[in-house]
Amino acid sequence: MTGDAPDTRPLGPRRFSFGVIADTHVNQGEDACNSPYEANRLANRRLRHVIRDLNARDLAFVVNVGDLVHPVPAIPDLYAEAAARFHEQTAALRRPLYLTPGNHDVGDKPNDWAPAARVAEAHLALWERHFGPQYRSFDHDGCHVAIVNAQILNSGFAAEAEQRAWLEADLAASRGKRLFLMSHYPPYFTRPDEEENYDNLGEPGRGWLLGLLEKHGVEALFAGHVHNFWFYRHGATDCYLLPSTAFVRLDYSEMQRVAPEPGSEFGRNDTPKLGYAVVHVHERGHLCEIVRTWGAVAEAGSPEPAAGRRIAPVHPRLNRRDGFGFDMRQNWMDTVEIPPTGGLDEFDRKAVRNDYPLMALWEMGVRRVRIPLRDLLLPERAERLRALHGHGQRFTLFTFGDPPARVRDLVARHRDLLSSWEIGLNFEALERDIAGVGDAARSAGVPVYLSRLRSTEEQRAEAGKYYHAINQGFLADEGDRMAALLARPELAGALAGFVFRLTMDMAPWEAVAGASGVAAGLGVAASVHLRMTGANPALETADDHAAASRIAEAVAAAAAFANVTVFADTFIDFDRGYFPRRGVLDRRFNPRPAFHAVRHLNAALNAVDGALRPGRAGVCPGGRHVELRSDAGAIVLALPDAGAAEIAVPAGAGPASRIDLLTGAIAPAARADGHAVLAVAETDGVAAPVLVLPGDRF
Length: 698
What we know:
- The strands form seven sheets. The chain has an eight-stranded parallel beta barrel with strand order 12-15-16-17-18-19-20-21. The protein has a six-stranded mixed sheet with strand order 4-5-6-7-9-8, with helices on one face. A six-stranded antiparallel sheet has the order 22-23-24-32-26-27, with helices on one face.
- The chain is built from 16 helices and 32 strands.
- Helix 1 (43-55) runs parallel beside helix 2, helix 14 runs parallel beside helix 15 (544-560) and helix 15 (544-560) runs parallel beside helix 16 (593-606).
- By secondary structure, the chain is α/β, with parallel strands linked by helices.
- The radius of gyration is 27 Å and the shape is globular.
- Strand 20, helix 15 (544-560) and strand 21 form a beta-alpha-beta unit.
């Protein structure tokens, strides 16, 4: 089903937030576990950490969407012990907790192909004895939350008919309220008509539940069971499939198409993928924040650590400093067929989309992405873009040459999704293509930016020798050439700006400043392409420190220069092929240091009121710095050299705060002789960029 157009109006003020945790898989003892995997033995310790984390947040309530315990009810003695451990741990939660039954709690959904113990009426009685009602609902601040037992759908039990009648009446009686639905099983992964497998709902229960979502305009559905993150939109309903707090479903490691991390139990203990959700309910709509726990544990009886101050992330939809984005060179909406391996599915493959790239964009607060024509050309991808547009994503299309009719028609149909359109030209064919580009740009209804291929001679001059590679973009010293293009009658009134090239030998701040100045002089805007590799396609660029510093400087420059957008050319690592280099995600789609730098810098800059303007930039003792000016004073990004023990950056008088951009930790900044003197912290061997802000309100 095609999703309804999302509401893109401003969200308005936040009303409240709530937590959603999934698949806690509590064991019968702290060290006792009936699973063959070592990761499962950590489940109780991991939940204890999550409870402490939840207690530190401003939450109205918490919902667990199932698989509370690991021992299944077919083993009643172990089940009862695990239930007792669950209640002992959750007694420490200082928020109301609502429980959803999962398949480990009441048995698997009805199926004939899996050996796991199926749902049974005796298991339902065990749940009710240990945990309470199978289904229920409650209200909070104009919102209505319904919890269902998805395992009994298609069972034929009396409880199924009773739940159906109850949910239909409950949703009908809640007309006028904002509706949220909690289920352990997700209805589906990628298509509402997809084949049934171990992890989705079968018919007719699936169709019945989806019909209720459509009929009542449910705002969001939250599901567990799959131990990984997915998002899709069904009609008007945002559907979130959530990670586990305990372990990763390792069959879905096939999405990564590279070997699991050594020591991760073949993907089951891929700790960056563990976490839970915080849902922020606003006046209009909501935001879903995924909180990675990184597999952190808390030992029984251990003291709670002192709560340190950390910068809160910003969602793309709320990011006011949205001039920085990524070039989505790899397929970021990839659908992978998960093979049967003798585990939970054995008689067919199951198709799932990899949504970890999307999750990373949301975590970093990145609104802008640059997409190729293929992402608009394929209907299922264009539909996906429309759903993501409602969650804050903004798209820049790039194509090459005089756009043919089919491309112009495609842009016209999707112009509401596009923030800009970059068209590249081979200037040896300029006279052939220029009129067509001008006509297309004037009729597009989308701001059009012009780029140009660099010639063989130019590439040889830049690299010192010629490499068989494609380079594009103008340089800041080509202002006369751009002015001449704007004066051409074929391009009269057609162009919004030009694409500029930012090579590895250029400092991002100075290059962005140069592009901004040229564009301002021409009365247009600039799109700057940040290269993360050198000119030689055979050499790997694998320095995480350099990548984090370079990208952080580019984010700051994009925020400071109002007429510039910056796109980094590497989102996910290229570890093969031409120009191998580091991105902000590795090939397992887990964060690299540059990810954290973008996330925390976006968050910190959004915490500053008013406009930002460019200030000074240059070298300083221990590294390099760039300055943004605000009404509150100077904001300084300190970029320490690798191995530096401290860095001293120019700073005004008065108190100041420092934010470690790899951890998000906030602390006072020491001052001496007009400088902020910053001890350099390292995370995983990378010297952390630091942001210094005036005042102590952070």
